[in-house]
Amino acid sequence: MTLLVISPDYASHLLPLATLATAWRDRGDDVVVASGPATSSIVSSFGFRGAELRLGRGSNPGTIRAEEQPAGEDDSLRGFFDATRRGLVDTLAYQASQRTTDLLWQPLETASAVLKVIDQVKPDAVIVDHLAFTARLALQAAGIRHADVVLGHPSALPIAGEVYGYPTSWPRAFDPDVDALERLRASCILVRDRFTEQWNDALAVLDPSAASSSDAFAEHGDTLLLNYPGQLHDPERTAQLATHAFLGSAIRDEPADPEVDAWLSRGGAPIVYVSFGSFLSVRADVLARVADALRPLDVRVAVAIGSADRRDLGELPHTWLVREFLPQVTMLKHAVLAVTHGGNNSVTEAATAGVPMLVLPFSTDQFAGAEAVESRGYGLALAPNTASVDELRAAAQSLLTDTELRDRSRLLGSELRATPGRDRAYGALSS
Fold first, then answer.
1. Residues paired with residue 223 on neighbouring β-strands, in sequence order
2. What does the pLDDT read at residue 99?
3. Where in this chain does the record put each Erythromycin biosynthesis protein CIII-like C-terminal domain (predicted)?
4. pLDDT for 7-22, tens place per residue?
């Protein structure tokens, strides 16, 4: 059989989708990945065939920098980074303001390109990123059955009166102004309605007989796959989801890295892994505070600094491993604590490794993900803009010494590793 995977041109999206597709590859099936040129090397590294498909203006081969983006997208990214410095409400409000330009990009032209790929590949099954709205619009209009993978926190698919872009929850460390939250919700409702109008306008052209949507953000594919551990999700919300499967995580195999392997083999103090992902690593000011907090502790630290300038982190111990990029899955297998921005890949990969988390969320569903980690007892969450060095150090020390939390995290990891996400995805599509 032939499986088609449709992904935006972002490494953070393609890597988990490609990992899920290895379940088909390893069974001898043909896998074709439709994405943009920036991630073509990732496609080939998995041994998949590629089909070029642009789903948006931007791209991200692993570490994103505003100056490397096309005109318009660069300013949008700078605006986003600036908003994260002002806090939860301002960040989500800015993201809402950008939503109608970056989620339904050139819908008719892109839909045509998607259907052209379908005609060329003639797949037996299709997996598509939930945030690839234009691709899902094309598939829905053409009546092509597909599996829809929510790669973020499950609240990325709103249910039961939720409004896309408005946080379903946030950690205790955040105390947003009530009036500001009301303004944010009103803004998200306006964006939802505008986005739904755009969706319906394009749908009417692609399939004049199709019924209009009342909330395009709530639309989903024929098979709903959630790349998230069910153990971290609120049971009451789980009961309200459409028929679905929790995948747990999509843990990929990583090639050997001699420098990393040598550093890990030296032994010594416990390892703390620090990463703010491909986007938020730009917040060097927060990374610097985290480094200051960890410096006096009896730990070895591995820091993936991404787009941050290493000089902004100050003088770091020679025993630390500091690089732009580190093999996260490998590092987490050896870590006793992960300090993270709360991106879904980071949360699910740390959970699968059984590693407690100190989460410093900046944007989107990271707030809900951080709240889940804290409330379900797998870590702590702090506000990145206001957490002091002393507060960060105290939180890290608490997590390093909490044996009950460590045991709970290890048990969760064992449960998730018992049935990998790729096998859950294959089972859901094969049933």
1. 147
2. 77
3. 289-420
4. 999 888 999 999 999 9
Asked: is 2-63+103-171+200-249+420-430 a CATH 3.40.50.2000 domain? The reply is: yes
pTM over 0.70: yes
pLDDT in tens, 77-133: 789 899 999 999 999 999 998 876 667 888 999 999 999 999 999 999 999 999 999
